[in-house]
Amino acid sequence: MSANPTNTSDVRGDRVVTNSTGYPYNDPFATQRVGQHGPLLMQDANLIDSLAHFNRERIPERNPHAHGSGAFGYFEVTDDITDICGSAMFSEIGKRTRFLTRFSTVGGEKGSADTARDPRGFATKFYTEEGNLDWVYNNTPIFFIRDPSKFPHFIHTQKRNPQTNLKDPNMFWDYLTTPENQVAVHQLMILFSDRGTPASYRHMNGYSGHTYKWSNKKGEWHYVQVHILTDQGIKNLTNDEAVEIAGKNPDYCQQDLYENIAKGNYPSWTVYIQTMTEEQAKKLPFSVFDLTKVWPHKDFPLRRVGKMVMNENPLNYFASIEQAAFSPANTVPYQEPSADPVLQSRLFAYADAHRYRLGANFHQIPVNCPYASKFFNPVIRDGPMNVDGNFGNEPNYYASNKQYQIPNQDRPIQQHQEVWNGPAQPFHWATSPGDIDFVQARDLYKVLGKQKDQQEHLAYNIGTHVAGADPEIQQRVIDMFSRVDEGLGANIRKEIEKNASAPTAKI
């Protein structure tokens, strides 16, 4: 099957125009009426077929990550990592696996601008011989939260005020400067630097963010984080450049990606991993399951795995990109989730979002089918829009008079890994006492100081954004970033004073 899985088996090759049930039109624009100028007739099934389908041709947009672009490509193994991971896709150097990647913004609606200040999604579906593998990543190595229960609250504050229906800097900053939520400060440093507005999808990285567990075929396992680093180099926009482009061409990144692939300028990324043993994890100054922290490269160096090349645009955006359904629960042997609580919650939430958005049988949509491995589970059947034959006369349970192949019964999953023991208890993973949640933000501020104008841009971007908020919230923003650096807090105050007359944030 090609990298553009599209079901066209029911499309007429002779291009005779019909209604949805195959009835050929006499005239696609004629309508049945009482006389030449009288009212329409309800018996005009062709007209009703067209109008009724038109009313239903939009599916619910994703809640976060509604606005996105994507394309197909191949992953090629360049280095042997079979000592770390036994997945078939890594079995030999030179092996290629087809993939689909969808890039996206997080907070905006489907029609929002590509250059908005926002993290970018970097979701990839690999069509492997062991099933579909989804790496549902972002372009930042960390995130705003580590309590999964806060995700709906956080996303609501990044969207629209329920009364004004406007983006609201009070909502945005009130949530993030609440003391228990200041664990987000590291991600905010990234978001409000120029890294928060990538110049294109081709010029940004992808990161797993979460910790995963990978095993080799001997049963040896490691904690793993994945880095997908652009071969085109990092390029970002300033705040003012991003605003200007949003006004001129809100689909700027979509156009850039499509046109470069169309003319053969295929973007590529090099895939690396960081690995950590369980013993090393116990010695960290923070939890290995903390989504707000990065692993220091000096302690856990990058190890090259392979290359991703994006070389084929979708034939139809809706079929291949809008209907694409990604979930971190879609994995393959030897790649498993860790106990990261946000990752654990995503294992349910993503697939459930697609059941709502696309229907119970979303896995049968061609772009989501595991066509490289095929699928057999006669218990998963029926439901709306079942189009794969529904397993015919197979029993809908595992019948004693049928033969079933279960080849991996002896493969260890997690019983040889961590052992958890303790009472069921609630735990609110709020901002930690002391400065541990500010250490990496301070380190990033020092890195920005080595790059031309980046500390100044950070203060300008934050000050511009919070200028429309209430004075009390502005002060909370200044206080929070002063814990990162006193000079940063002072510069944000200056920018707020410059923009004090602005009624709303620029982005």
UniProtKB/TrEMBL annotation:
<dbReference type="InterPro" id="IPR024711">
    <property type="entry name" value="Catalase_clade1/3"/>
</dbReference>
<dbReference type="GO" id="GO:0020037">
    <property type="term" value="F:heme binding"/>
</dbReference>
<comment type="function">
    <text>Catalyzes the degradation of hydrogen peroxide (H(2)O(2)) generated by peroxisomal oxidases to water and oxygen, thereby protecting cells from the toxic effects of hydrogen peroxide.</text>
</comment>
<dbReference type="InterPro" id="IPR011614">
    <property type="entry name" value="Catalase_core"/>
</dbReference>
<dbReference type="GO" id="GO:0005829">
    <property type="term" value="C:cytosol"/>
</dbReference>
<keyword id="KW-0349">Heme</keyword>
<dbReference type="GO" id="GO:0034599">
    <property type="term" value="P:cellular response to oxidative stress"/>
</dbReference>
<comment type="similarity">
    <text>Belongs to the catalase family.</text>
</comment>
<feature type="domain" description="Catalase core">
    <location>
        <begin position="18"/>
        <end position="406"/>
    </location>
</feature>
<keyword id="KW-0575">Peroxidase</keyword>
<dbReference type="GO" id="GO:0004096">
    <property type="term" value="F:catalase activity"/>
</dbReference>
<keyword id="KW-0479">Metal-binding</keyword>
<dbReference type="Pfam" id="PF00199">
    <property type="entry name" value="Catalase"/>
</dbReference>
<protein>
    <recommendedName>
        <fullName>Catalase</fullName>
        <ecNumber>1.11.1.6</ecNumber>
    </recommendedName>
</protein>
<dbReference type="GO" id="GO:0005759">
    <property type="term" value="C:mitochondrial matrix"/>
</dbReference>
<feature type="compositionally biased region" description="Polar residues">
    <location>
        <begin position="1"/>
        <end position="10"/>
    </location>
</feature>
<keyword id="KW-0376">Hydrogen peroxide</keyword>
<dbReference type="GO" id="GO:0005777">
    <property type="term" value="C:peroxisome"/>
</dbReference>
<keyword id="KW-0408">Iron</keyword>
<dbReference type="Pfam" id="PF06628">
    <property type="entry name" value="Catalase-rel"/>
</dbReference>
<dbReference type="InterPro" id="IPR018028">
    <property type="entry name" value="Catalase"/>
</dbReference>
<dbReference type="GO" id="GO:0046872">
    <property type="term" value="F:metal ion binding"/>
</dbReference>
<dbReference type="InterPro" id="IPR024708">
    <property type="entry name" value="Catalase_AS"/>
</dbReference>
<dbReference type="GO" id="GO:0042744">
    <property type="term" value="P:hydrogen peroxide catabolic process"/>
</dbReference>
<feature type="region of interest" description="Disordered">
    <location>
        <begin position="1"/>
        <end position="30"/>
    </location>
</feature>
<feature type="active site">
    <location>
        <position position="138"/>
    </location>
</feature>
<dbReference type="InterPro" id="IPR002226">
    <property type="entry name" value="Catalase_haem_BS"/>
</dbReference>
<dbReference type="GO" id="GO:0042542">
    <property type="term" value="P:response to hydrogen peroxide"/>
</dbReference>
<dbReference type="InterPro" id="IPR010582">
    <property type="entry name" value="Catalase_immune_responsive"/>
</dbReference>
<dbReference type="GO" id="GO:0005737">
    <property type="term" value="C:cytoplasm"/>
</dbReference>
<dbReference type="InterPro" id="IPR020835">
    <property type="entry name" value="Catalase_sf"/>
</dbReference>
<dbReference type="GO" id="GO:0005782">
    <property type="term" value="C:peroxisomal matrix"/>
</dbReference>
<keyword id="KW-0560">Oxidoreductase</keyword>
<feature type="active site">
    <location>
        <position position="65"/>
    </location>
</feature>
<dbReference type="GO" id="GO:0062040">
    <property type="term" value="C:fungal biofilm matrix"/>
</dbReference>
<feature type="binding site" description="axial binding residue">
    <location>
        <position position="350"/>
    </location>
    <ligand>
        <name>heme</name>
    </ligand>
</feature>
